[in-house]
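Researcher: Batch entry, complex prediction.
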Amino acid sequence: MSGVLVVMEQRGGVWNRMSWETLAAGQQLAGPTGLAASAAVVGQGIGTLAEELARKKLERVFAVEHPLLGAYTADGFTAALVQLLRKANPSIVLFPHTYQVRDFAPKLATRLQQVLISDAIGFHVESGAPVFVRQLFQGKLNADVKAAGAAPHFASIQAGAFRADQLEDGSAQIETFTPELSPETIRAKPQEPFRESARAVDLTAAELIVSVGRGIKEKENIPIVEELAKALGAELAASRPICDGGWMPMERQVGSSGQTVSPKMYMAVGISGAIQHLVGMKGAKTIVAINKDPNAPIFEVADYGIVGDLFEIVPALTEEVKKAKS
Amino acid sequence: MKIIVSIKQVPARDSQLRTDATGRWIQENDIGFEINEPDAYALEEALQLKEKHGGEVIALCAGPARASQTIREALAKGADRAIHIVEDNLALFGTLGVARLLAKAAQPEQADVILTGLQSDDLGYGQTGVVVAELLGLPSATIIMAVEKVDGGIRVKRELEDGWFQNVEMPLPAVLTIQSGSNKLRYATLMGIKKAKTKEVKRLTTAELGVVAAARASIERIYPPQRNKQTQMIEGTAKEAAAKLVEKLRFEARIL
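Model: Structure tokens for the complex:
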């Protein structure tokens, strides 16, 4: 059998939602390449998850079960999937581009003398083979990337690149696969995941958000943006470098490592729009970007853009907002 | 603790990038280069580990001759010596080939830990560290916020998504990719810059390392991204642009 195999991600019986987007990508890749799509879920006690998967239009669902796969380890997942791939023999293997996938999928690909075409945002099919689209230089340029040599070829799919609501339903046969694993081959000893502190600020509920990035240059300048947020009645948020620097609390961070927001308006001030930030805010209804670099990737997702010096534009904007509201 | 930190030189962050004649890469002759920012954080973590536990920090870099500037800066910040794999056409090696070069150069050093940034700002594959670990048969962990020595190895704090973290213990030697931002980057001191000039930089060629160029994935072409959205660019002085934007937010987007 050869086909497209999508490796889904779950933790403690809960799906990572990016898995469904990747599954949609897998179904869409199957058609034009003339391959059948299948899916795999890895863990322990995953019967219910496999049944849910089996209601999608797939040829087969592999439930990869083993007591040593209950907690994620790179060694355990790599060993289990190498064995599954030998059995299932897919041409293309897709993963959601999650932090966990970044931890083990390159290892898996290397063990099979392959590379992972990571963080793809799309693909097109040329003479039966997929050409993946990736972002280079923090999103400033795109690249078409083609795998060379023998299958299987590996790719991971960026959050939000495909839509889970485009998944086709159907019915698939479930096959339980028990890999051979021994505890001494698993070198890492993972402990329980934890959260540092309860979140005091819930940005996901905010209707309007003004967010600040590196362009603000110094902590002392943040009140300029705070004034604007106050005038608009918006929550203040920030990109990762601002929170890392301790200029704003971590709980106000938007992006893959912070909160994912979809307000009525998101105004990005001095934020260039690295991929990790965009995945956290591109669902906003209206996006406004203010940045000095006309080529900043933030303008790719913006509805309204102003190129210029934020230290001139933001105070002017605060004045205009106050005028409009009075 | 003997630490290797793998660093890469990439185009400077604010460079105006243009496609070259092949259509497969950018024009490199008119832009500046600097250390890949995530690797600067890996270097910082390496220097802090040395300060805590003693030992040696070796900067490892694959790149053309111009990368020696980035290596020099790492030495000025406190790395003890460096290994430069000199190669003009790294793209021909692909991710796996470059990782093979790094692994081959690292192997004889028998380091306790190999650190690198979590991804590069140019290609952004985010996998070199993990691939190097697999080639050397070492355990690895990615997106690491903190490293602590414990009996029998290290305990690392991994960042997971959505504000979650996890502690993982593993034996040494190991390979770690370091999350950006968890430490404050140091500047090179005048003394450091002076000392760097006398520090050892071992130069190796790809032929000496016995790695043949054969990429398993190739860039067919590069191009500016297509806009998904029709972005309205608002022009004028700061005051004019502000007034126009407020007008649009009120009557077009109906937000105010």
